[in-house]
Amino acid sequence: MPQMIFVNLPVTDLAKSIAFYAALGFTQNPQFSDQSGACMVLSETIHVMLLTHAKWQGFTTRPICPAGSSEVSLAITVESRAEVDRLVEAGGAHGGGVDLNPSEDHGFMYQRTIADPDGHIWEPFWMDPAAAAGEPAVADAAS
Q: Are residues 83 and 128 in the same domain?
């Protein structure tokens, strides 16, 4: 079994959060979902657990970050620059905040940010496959 990551996020409106993540391409795993939380699957190894505040507080006594603050930024690779834009626009159309941080275009890498309805920051980014492999990036070939 490959190593997996489960990102746990406290949410105020479970149904709205499920709709947001579904719009980004996540699928809900009903086996690990109920009225207090939902398991949203992006890939075989990446899962997001959306937990109501009551459920979240069953796991920790630490306070939930207040609205407008950030504790973590979740960066995730995508296949193309167009996919970066598609994800950000889809999330914005489903209650997310778009481009909370300035987008970054370095030629060989392109990144934008989106916040889910509770303000959790995601950074979809594309990187030229050559640059990711440590080879000269396509954008660098002209220089």
A: yes
